[in-house]
Amino acid sequence: MLISDARRALFVHVPKTGGVSVGVAFERCCPDARSKTPGVTPPLGRHAPYARILRAEPRTADYWSFGFVRNPWARMVSWWSMIDDWDREWGPSSGKPQGEAAVKMRGNDMWRAAAAYSGFEEFVLRGTEELPRVGRPQVDYLRTPDREVDFVGRTERFAEDLQEVERRLGAEPTRVPHRNKSPHGGYHDYYSPAARDKVAEVYAADLEAFGYTF
């Protein structure tokens, strides 16, 4: 989540949709950008849904709001790759000293649980049931019962949609690097029929809202 009161703009950060890069652009366009709401306990958090933001800051209902989404099958592969890469590089199986970064990740309930799965298949089949963030459709971050954000960008056309955001924020469009971009290739080969169908079931709302297909 990022808010600019000067520009009257709100970015809703859906996990694993290029939000780090979007944040760089937002902060360039909006020097007053903030990620915290004074007086709100506990803090809203980086990935606060639109509904929770509006409850905490009702005046932002009049702000221009936006977020980004991603093909659910590709998003799951990216999520698993990030967790798996960290575990192999820094987790207990790496054989490296378990320093501050490792301790921090072990303190994250989601990362700790996901790292215990045997592989991508289990991450999809069990993780979508056991880990609330993993099993939450993207559209749930961007809608309330009676409204939704004003603009939804797609990671599949990330550069073009991010430039549209910059224009809406009153800035000259730039080519902001896509930070934390997934290094893996296509996602299709990761899926068994069961895992493919599980994603379709769990993210049915995203498929309907955004027209994504396998």
UniProtKB/TrEMBL annotation:
Its main location: Golgi. InterPro entries: Carb_sulfotrans_8-10, P-loop_NTPase, Sulfotransferase. Pfam families: Sulfotransfer_2. Keywords: Glycoprotein, Golgi apparatus, Membrane, Transferase, Transmembrane, Transmembrane helix. It is found in: Golgi apparatus membrane. It comes from the Bacteria. One of its GO terms (biological process) is carbohydrate biosynthetic process. Signal peptide: none annotated. GO terms for cellular component: membrane. SUPFAM superfamilies: P-loop containing nucleoside triphosphate hydrolases. The keyword Membrane applies. It is a single-pass type II membrane protein. PANTHER family: CARBOHYDRATE SULFOTRANSFERASE. This is Sulfotransferase family protein. It comes from Nocardioides zhouii. The lineage of its organism: Bacteria, Bacillati, Actinomycetota, Actinomycetes, Propionibacteriales.
